[in-house]
Amino acid sequence: MNENKSLNGKTAVVTGGSRGIGKAVALRLASLGANIAIIYASNEEAANKVCEKCRNEFNVEAKCYQLDVSDFTKTKETVMQIKKDFNAVQILVNNAGITRDNLLAMMREDDYDSVVDTNLKGAFNMIRHMAGMFIKNHEGCIINISSVAGLLGNPGQCNYSASKAGLIGLTKSVARELASKNVRCNAIAPGFIATDMTFDQQDNPLVERIPLGKMGSANDVADAVEYLVFASYVTGEVLKVDGGIAM
Question: Active-site residue 227, yes or no?
Fold first, then answer.
């Protein structure tokens, strides 16, 4: 670990932290010394494995919390429990997200609502209930995981693209509101990242659209999170991690 980049004594909350990008982010922050609160929707076994790895490999505190982030009241209760368990939180990574893809003409209302509620409202719920803690302590770093789909749009993903575009607007508004309180809010817009939510890279025609000629990894996104955590003079920014697809 780089001794000049330490999160010892800090606590980070990572939503959707049981797999994929969220798992990579949680492990990266733990490797830098941060205590970790993992929020997961349903896969308790996977979440527990991430927490166990954080504790055993990096000697930090780590706890898991089951939560549907789209539930305003339950989110408040979970944040209160995290505050009780860790005393204070300095970092929030809103990574929880789902897809319910279909062409606009065939998309069901509940598929639109569920994606927007989880991806966009879920981030609002987390920020809303953690903002008071950040303001009181005059310290906070919020990172919202958006997507290049929120910048470019994507056929068959009007719900997902709308939620990720909305996340960028939320990021900029929060950044403006909380800057005077020493609370920063930035977004990351990944492109095609090889996780279990994406197609396999082999023989994937989407790869041909990427200037760098390959899909990214979850660790590429974790690199961006690490940068933003320590970038004390950066707020309201959207950092693309996309191999150049949205340049």
Answer: no
Rg (CA), the chain: 17
State yes or no: pLDDT of 143 exceeds 70: yes
CB 176 within 8 A of CB 214: no
Full set of structural domains in the chain with CATH? 11-241 (3.40.50.720)
Q: Is the pTM of this model over 0.90?
A: yes
Angle (CA) 182-188-194 rounded to 5° is 145
Local structure of 98: helix, strand or coil: coil
- Given 40, 65, 112, 160, the catalytic residue: 160
List residues bridging with 65 in a β-sheet.
Answer: 39
| Per-residue pLDDT reduced to its tens digit, 197-240 | 555 555 667 788 899 999 999 999 999 999 999 999 999 999 99
